Amino acid sequence: MDRDNAKPAAGDPALERLRGPKIAIALAGASGRPLQAAGFLRPVIALSEGALRGRAGTYVVTEQQPDGRLAPIVPSALNAIDQERLDLAVIERAFAVAEPMAPGGRPPLLVLPLSWSSVRNSRIRRKLLRAAAEGQVRLRNLPVCEITGIESGTPQAALREAAGQLQPIFRGVLARATPNRRVIRDLTDCGFTGATVEAAALGDIEDGPAMLRTVLALQKIGPGVLVHAVRSVAGLTAVRAAGASWASLDIVPGAAESAGLAAHTKTAAGETPTAA
Question: Is 255:272 a contact under the CB 8 Å cutoff?
Answer without folding.
Answer: no
